[in-house]
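Before surveying the methods themselves, it helps to consider a single example record, giving the amino acid sequence and backbone structure tokens:
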Amino acid sequence: MTHRLLLALLLALALTAAAGDARAQSRYAAVVGVNEGDVDDARLLYAERDAARIADVLTRLGDVPAENLLLLRGADADAVEHLFRVLRDRIRAEPSGERPLLFIYYSGHADAQALRMRGTRLPFARLKALAREVGAEVSVFVVDACRSGGLTRVKGASPAPPFEIRADDHIDSEGLAIITSSAEGEDAQESERLKGGIFTHHLVGGLVGAADTSGDRRITLSEAYRYAYAQTLRATSETPTVQHPTYAFAMKGRRELVLTRLTDDRGLGRLAFGAPGHYLVLERFGAGDVAAELEAEAATELLVAPGRYLVRRRAAGGVWEGQVAVAADARAEVRVAELSRVPFRETVRKGYAPEAGSAWSLGGAFEISGPPLPDTGLGLYGALTAQLDLADVTLALRLRYGRSSSANETLTLTQDLFGLDLGVFKLFDLSRGLAAGIGVRVGGDFVSQRFDTRGRAPSRGVALGRLAPVVRLEAAPTPAVGLALDCGADIAVVELQDEDGSGLATPVVPFCSLGLALEVR
């Protein structure tokens, strides 16, 4: 059965059997995050943090009372078993034998048979038995189990057959939904930029508003899954390991299971997006963590903690950003017209647009330098420039020409210089539109010399090679324009002739140049 067909079924089938408003059904949650797996597992960075984020959303917006949510971080298998026994006892004490909804979340290490926590193992068969013993009417499992490594940290375990939780060996309850962060044979991933698991990050974003495609301010299980699936697939398509979240379900009834309600602000603020697009929301004007990354529709709203945020919007023509203050119990709108475009070179160097891995610019420069050859005058040059900015390095090609002259009582020297060089720079962005760095430039020149004297003096040509350390300062007066100030000293290698014959010389030629370039799209 295709994924699209299964998703259509998920949208159509009921996930709760309770009559009336799902809010009437009491809710419990078991949330577990463990960074440490077996002894030979690489330690995860964000599994425990992800668990805390899920717990916060469930208590704030998911109708789970704080006393009904049990959060474990850094636990072992025995602690998890004890957690389920506590839940079982609490649910059995419910009045009139009410059977509530149970939400189970796990982030950490796993293999084909078990969760792996701090050197202990909890087999999937035992996990399902524990959930069955709790006696909930509806059980929702969300499992983000993974391996680690690389810039985008791959989460989970040492190589083993892929883990799988199956729904077809039924739990004795009215309903069961299982969502896993990746498909069979795939790795789930952590992101150091997002400070969390990619799947969990987008699941949380969906639960706080990004998944509300209907506009009714209620996030159903199907909406949350659909949004997390699409965003996880998009984000991991830019990495070596593409990740496809999966689900399975066995439900009775025909009501949608509402996971969060965006009407219960509880001191939060609303961040509204006035235009569709890809947005990144960063805390503390961008100095903090990523609060959300989302594909917004025209009327998408997120519930966020009160504070000041940096909002960055990515579109085909570049990246725009601006600052937004969100007050408690108030609505703040992100207006595209009030966002400022980020300079094109900075966009590439900082990785703001992963699909734009390079930026080209063309322009010109003026340079003044010391005498290119001994006993000649200052060099004044014009240059045509082409620059390629990549994430980690900048390449700058120059084609330059200049004329200089010098004279004494008997001789006038006029020389034309034609040169070509390539610069390699490492630049660091200091603030918006300002960068500095160092580099090296290597190239060669051909100097044509013409002598005017009372006697006969033939013209001659001189070739030289040069290598220069360079200090660069870049500024962006507008997002599509770049200025570059380069200063350094060429170490030239040239063959010179005098009365005693010829020999190699290595003159040092200081220089400074100022260039202007325009973005090439």
In short: The first strand starts at residue 27 and ends at 33. Residues 1-23, 147-153, 157-162, 167-173 have pLDDT under 50 and may be disordered. The chain has three domains: 3-18+25-261, 269-341, 358-520.
